Amino acid sequence: MTTTDHATRRAKAAAVSEAAARRERRRRTVMISACVAAALLLVGGIGFAVQSARTDTSGALVPAGAAGPDGGIVVGSPSAPVTVDVYEDFQCPICRAFEEQTGDTIGSLVDAKKIKVIYHVLAFLGPESERAANAAAAAANEGKFAELHDLLFASQPEEHAGGFQNAELVHLGSRVGLTSPEFVEAVHKGTYDDYVAQVNDAASREGVQGTPTVYVNGERLQTNALTPGGLTAAVTAAG
Fold this sequence. Notes:
The protein is an alpha+beta fold and 239 residues long. The protein has a single domain (3-238), classed as Glutaredoxin (3-Layer(aba) Sandwich). Helix content is 57%, strand content 10%. It has 8 helices and 5 strands. It has helices at residues 3-52, 93-111, 127-141, 145-154, 166-175, 181-189, 193-205, 228-238; strands at residues 73-75, 82-89, 115-122, 213-216, 219-220. It has a 5-stranded mixed beta sheet, sandwiched between helices. Strand 4 (213-216) and strand 5 (219-220) form a beta hairpin. Helix 1 (3-52) packs across helix 7, helix 3 runs antiparallel to helix 6 (181-189) and helix 5 (166-175) packs antiparallel against helix 6. The chain is globular.
C-alpha cells in the first residue's frame, strides 16, 4: 500500500471520527436541553411574578416591527400561512441551545415564506436580560432585529456574571450595522425597558412559565419537539 493510500485512509478515518463526534455533541445538547428545561420553568415562574408587579408602563415606547404594545417582534412575511411565537431570554442558556439547533431551520422556513415568527423577548434572569432585550428592541426599531438577535445569542455571557453591559451591546450592534446615535442612545437610556416589561407581563398572562417556549399557530410545542424536525413537522401540520 502506498503512502498516498495510507494518507487517504487516515483522512477518511478522521472524517468519520469527526462526524461521530458532531453527532455525539448534538445528542448531548438535546439531552441537556430536555433536563434543564424543567428547572427553567420554575425559575421562569418566579421571574414573571416579579415582572407582573411592575408599575404602570402604559406609556411605553413600542419599537417598529412589534405586534402591538405588548407583542413580540415580527420577522418574516405578514402573509405567511403559519405563525410561530417564540418566547426567549437572551441570558437563557437553553434558549441559546435552541437557537443553535433550530435557528437555520427557522430561517429557511421564513425565507420560504412558510412562517412568520413573532419573537417575544423576555427578561427574567436579571439586569443582563433587561439590557439585552432593550438593545434588541432598539435594533428592531431600525430593522435589524434578526441580525442582533443571532449575535446576542452567539455572544451570550454566563448567567448573572454582569454581562451584556451597555458598552458591549453598542459594540455588538456596530457589528451588524447599528451605529446610529438613536440606537446608541436607546441602549444607554433603556428606551424600551417599559416595552420589554409589557411583553413580560403579556407572556405571564398567556401562561408562559419558562424559556424557550414555542407556539405554532397557537399550539404549544412540547420540550421534546423543540428540534428542527419537531418544528418542521408542526409547521407542516399547521399549514
